[in-house]
Design a protein that fits this description.
Layout (H helix, E strand, L loop, with lengths): L1 E3 L3 E6 L3 H12 L4 E4 L16 H6 L12 E4 L7 E2 L15 H4 L9 H4 L1 H9 L8 E2 L7 H15 L25 H12 L5 E2 L9 E2 L5 E2 L25 H7 L3 E4 L2 E9 L2 E9 L5 E11 L3 H10 L17 E4 L2 E2 L3 E4 L15 E4 L18 E6 L19 H11 L3 E8 L3 E2 L3 E9 L5 E6 L4 H21 L3 E4 L17 E3 L23 E2 L15 H20 L6
């Protein structure tokens, strides 16, 4: 039996950054908002003294239970897709805060080039720079139009940083100053400056100082304990929906959070959603929550899957290139890493934070000439001092066996003197990279799993070679005695861990024929359904996506407010 509940103004499906921001902004304006989160509730009390690598890093305490719900994966359409049985290439969070609870805290703004990538690429390099299978698409909004929303997100989260000399225009400085510059980070700064680059401190959601945001939420400064990525922050120093926007929403009295609530279907009649159907995963009871507006704000992959399961929007068809739901899945091109070992220097690598680092953007976006290169875009190159755990970090020279006396000796020797210069490369939309429903495998509730079809392409491989040349130069300039550079990319494998930066599937744009949502994150086909989050990205840029997700979420909240005030219109 299904119980139908009283109607609300807005129902939010997933209470991470996107759902939390929408809930906070709309509840402050007096709307009644219900937040449905399939996982458990969280506060800082849940993280007290839990610096446990086995529990969180290795056993994925904060992540989705893959025995109940997972994805299937294949590299191409002729390959059989198989379920992802353990967390590998990426980890999907669950519980209040979602991925915003276990993230590292790196908080960039995508470059102006990203939002107009098709227009700017064609203007500079012509229409035939890439082959026709790559799908370049402008986002339907410019950086300058989105800049105020970036600013709002950074003030709410208390982002600590300094201006990127090669980034877009900023209306205001970061609300707090950059994190500490350690001797290791200073070495990177000096080396990249010597090479003619423009280093800057990574923008950080790990607070550099005590901070009170515009909503009155106060948080303490980072302790540099090194337990950020895959962990919740016991001090509240890391911006997390559970310590920022969720308490703000709850303080209004207009927001009701329901945990352990798995949404299985968006209900709709004609071109209007009427609400959602969800299961209480503890009792097994089913409920219908009617609402004026439905906000689909779960993880990227789950947004796409829920729309496909609910028969909303036209599924993407790779054969014809038509359809929009599932289109332009993109990952992160984690490319060109160089590892350096120092025989004559030691660094305190145990201390750190998820976004304590230095980056350069000289080889990101279109900040360099691609005329004679077989790829476009690029990536941020950076050195992070995140805090190395003794279980997960055992550095040795190349060729050393991973057991025995030599392994132990080198692990101890290089624990404080191994440095990795990494890069996050952009990843473009491609005709044969998409998400759809698996025809064979189902989840614990009997519904089809999401199927991912994805691989690295020539664009990614050429970028990896180029970026590898740059990171190698930096490590050698830093004075490393041994260097190892990975210039190879692909084929993509679902293991080991690489990045949780999944994007696309419900992409934004200015044309309903090529996009699923407009620049307010409103579906073209269902005007009372909004889908904020990284699923809106037509491609993935050369950064962590969270800052851009935050900006788009504030934009969505503004759009929903206009929609409700104007009786169903955004005009």
């Amino acid at each position: 039996m299904v119980t139908t509940l009283p109607k609300t103004d807005v129902v939010v499906v997933g209470v991470g950054w996107t759902g939390g921001i929408v809930a906070a902004e709309l509840s402050k304006k007096g709307y009644k908002v219900v937040g449905l989160e399939r996982g458990k509730g969280r506060t800082t009390a849940d993280y007290l003294m839990v610096h446990d690598e086995l529990r969180y890093t290795k056993r994925h305490e904060m992540m989705q239970d893959l025995s109940k719900e997972t994805i299937t994966f294949r590299n191409h359409e002729k390959m059989r897709a198989l379920p992802m049985r353990q967390h590998g290439a990426f980890v999907v969070g669950t519980g209040v805060g979602g991925s915003g609870a276990h993230w590292s805290g790196q908080n960039y703004r995508f470059l102006p080039y990203d939002f107009q990538i098709k227009t700017m690429t064609e203007e500079r390099y012509g229409k035939n720079k890439l082959d026709s299978n790559y799908i370049l698409q402008d986002w339907g909004i410019t950086y300058d139009e989105l800049e105020p929303y970036f600013d709002t997100f950074e003030k709410m989260a208390g982002i600590s940083g300094e201006e990127n000399p090669l980034g877009g225009f900023r209306s205001n400085p970061y609300p707090t100053g950059p994190m500490k510059t350690s001797p290791l980070l200073q070495t990177f700064k000096d080396a990249t400056t010597n090479l003619g680059c423009h280093p800057y401190m990574v923008p950080s959601a790990n607070l550099s100082e005590d901070y009170t945001n515009p909503d009155g939420i106060s948080r303490a400064a980072c302790q540099y304990c090194g337990f950020c990525s895959r962990y919740g922050c016991e001090y509240g120093a890391k911006a997390d929906p559970a310590v920022t926007v969720v308490p703000t929403a709850e303080a209004t009295g207009n927001f009701e959070l329901r945990t352990h609530s798995q949404v299985v279907e968006i209900l709709h009649t004609g071109n209007k959603a009427t609400g959602v159907r969800y299961v209480d995963v503890q009792s097994g009871e089913e409920f219908i929550q009617p609402a004026e507006v439905v906000v689909v704000s779960s993880f990227t992959l789950n947004n796409t899957r829920l729309l496909l399961l609910s028969n909303m929007g036209t599924p993407y068809d790779s054969k014809t290139g038509r359809g929009v739901i599932g289109k332009n899945y993109a990952y992160q091109n984690n490319c060109g890493e160089t590892v350096g070992l120092f025989d004559d220097r030691q660094f305190n690598l145990y201390m750190g934070a998820g976004s304590m680092g230095v980056a350069i953007d000289d080889f990101n976006g279109d900040n360099f000439d691609h005329t004679d290169l077989n790829f476009i875009h690029g990536g941020s190159i950076f050195l992070l001092q995140t805090g190395k755990g003794p279980i997960g970090f055992n550095p040795t020279k190349d060729g050393t066996k991973n057991w025995g006396k030599q392994f132990k000796e080198e692990s101890i020797k290089y624990y404080s003197s191994q440095v990795a210069i990494d890069a996050q490369g952009a990843n473009l939309g491609h005709r044969y990279h998409y998400l759809d429903l698996d025809p064979t495998y189902k989840d614990a509730w009997g519904m089809p799993l999401l199927r991912m079809t994805y691989d690295y392409e020539d664009q990614d491989r050429e970028m990896a070679k180029f970026i590898g040349d740059q990171t190698e130069k930096i490590v050698k300039e830093m004075g490393a005695t041994h260097t190892y550079t990975n210039r190879e990319q692909g084929p993509f494998d679902i293991v080991p861990y690489q990045s949780t930066h999944n994007t696309g599937g419900v992409i934004m744009g200015s044309d309903p024929e090529t996009s699923a949502i407009n620049n307010y994150m409103q579906m073209w086909d269902f005007d009372n359904v909004f889908v904020p989050g990284a699923s809106a990205f037509p491609h993935n840029g050369g950064y962590n996506p969270t800052g851009t997700i935050g900006a788009l979420s504030y934009r969505a909240a503004e759009g929903i407010d206009k929609y409700l005030k104007n009786g169903g219109s955004l005009v």
